[in-house]
Write a structure and sequence with these properties.
Layout lengths: L1 E3 L2 E3 L3 E4 L6 H11 L3 E5 H4 L3 H13 L3 E5 L6 H15 L3 E4 L12 H13 L3 E6 L3 H10 L3 E4 L13 H10 L4 E5 L5 H9 L4 E4 L1 H4 L4 H21 L25
Parallel strand pairs: 3-4, 3-10, 4-5, 6-7, 7-8, 8-9, 9-10
Antiparallel strand pairs: 1-2
Helix pairs in contact: 1-10, 4-5, 5-6, 8-10
Length: 260
């Protein structure tokens, strides 16, 4: 079980709802992932019309918790307004908060993010902030009232996996009571397993599944990887060594000598 604010969920995999080849494949992939929480773009849903209602009906059929996001927002005002719209649309206090600094790299605007998070926390939101792996930023988000922090592994959609392992390890060590989710840049199930092995509570991904040759099979692969990574962390991983250590003991084993 993993706890987000005051609610517990069974799955440590959060998944997005964008970019799939078809709505039917999206539904099948989300089910195969075992995810309890699905992110939804507020801009997509609020586009309105029959298409928006049809998409929302598909999400409701999945019987999952919706986590609206402020994807594409590039200012504090825009992000806060979008979050408040999401609360009305989806009847939820949860929001994945994104404030983007650069449209090409999609790097978070960490200054604006902290400011927007503080406003929304005071407004009663449960904020899931997307940030870099910088400890000072994460600490400021916690000081603002965030009980969940979501540092990236690498740039959104890059599939590069974890590029600053030591930075993520430091966050885990210094924020032991905070729910930490690796968000963005995970391109392979092994990347997700690595995040869970580091002690992270969950991962959030979208592109790696939606753009796979077979999104349904890939979603299941990520589910298995998350379970394996968490099991490995809980079991206690062996630390790396700079020297060899035989896996088969030699003490007490027989030796044969040639007889001339």
């Amino acid at each position: 079980m993993v706890k987000f604010y005051e609610t517990e969920f069974s799955s440590r995999l959060l998944i997005g709802s964008a970019l799939y080849p078809s709505p039917a494949i999206m539904q099948r992939a989300i089910r195969a992932s075992g995810a309890d929480i699905v992110t939804v773009s507020v801009r997509r849903e609020s586009a309105g019309g029959m298409a928006g209602e049809a998409f929302w009906s598909l999400i409701r059929e999945l019987d999952v918790t919706v986590l609206p996001n402020t994807a594409g927002c590039m200012s504090v005002r825009e992000a806060v307004t979008t979050a408040r719209l999401a609360r009305e649309l989806f009847d939820t206090p949860r929001i994945k908060l994104e404030v983007i600094a650069d449209s090409e790299t999609l790097q978070p605007d960490v200054v604006g993010l902290v400011e927007a998070a503080a406003i929304l926390i005071k407004d009663g939101f449960e904020v899931f902030p997307y940030c870099t792996e910088d400890l000072s930023v994460a600490q400021r988000l916690v000081d603002a009232g965030c009980r969940v922090v979501m540092p990236w592994a690498s740039a959104i959609g890059s599939a590069r996996g974890i590029v600053n392992r030591e930075g993520l390890k430091l966050l885990r060590a210094r924020l032991p009571e905070i729910t930490l989710v690796v968000d963005a840049g995970l391109g392979a199930p092994s990347h997700a397993a690595e995040a869970l092995e580091l002690g992270y509570d969950a991962v959030l991904l979208n592109t790696a599944v939606a753009k796979a040759a077979d999104p349904v099979v890939m979603a299941e692969a990520f589910r298995l990887a998350v379970d394996a990574g968490r099991a490995g962390f809980e079991a206690g991983l062996m630390g790396p060594r700079d020297f060899a250590s035989p896996s088969t003991p030699v003490i007490g084993t027989p030796f044969w000598h040639a007889v001339s």
